[in-house]
Amino acid sequence: MPKITPTTSGLTLDRLRRDPSQLLSSGNIAEMKIFQSHDALARAVKSGRLPEPYRAGLHRLWEGRAVLQMLGAPVEIPGERPKEAA
Predict the structure, then answer these.
(1) Most buried by CB count within 10 Å: which residue of 12, 15, 19, 34?
(2) How far, in Å, CA of 5 to CA of 83, rounded?
(3) Strand blocks (E) in 15-86
(4) How many angstroms separate the CA atoms of 8 and 29, rounded?
(5) Beta pairing partners, 3
(6) Strand partners for 23
(7) Residues 6+ apart with CB under 8 A from 5
(8) Is 37 left (phi over 0), alpha (psi -120 to 50) or beta?
(9) b/e for 14-47, b at 16 or more Cβ within 10 A?
């Protein structure tokens, strides 16, 4: 199972929550330690946990919002105040 080479963009889940419209490559996903191999990423797409990627040339890109939903992480909407715990 070939490993994904992580990017060094400094992307974190907190930054992704603040801007969920970002497009993520497999390298970005590996950088956040969500998937480390191409096989694991392909299984997530095949099982429906992650939608089919957008294709730009040889690159596969996923919307950050889809990755956050797969993880069950809350998505912040710009300009909206965070909900306080009851």
Answers:
(1) 34
(2) 36
(3) 23-24, 54-56, 59-63
(4) 11
(5) 37
(6) 63
(7) 27, 30
(8) beta
(9) eebbeebebebbbebbbbbebbeeeeebeebeee
The pLDDT of residue 48 is above 60:
yes
With tokens 């990423």, the residue in question is 41
CA distance 23 to 3: 20
The whole-number pLDDT of residue 72 equals 86
Asked whether the predicted pLDDT for residue 84 surpasses 80, the reply is no
Contact at 8 Å (CB) between 32 and 54?
no
Determine contact, residues 10/49, Cβ cutoff 8 Å.
no
- pLDDT per position as a tens digit, 8-32: 788 888 888 888 888 999 988 988 8
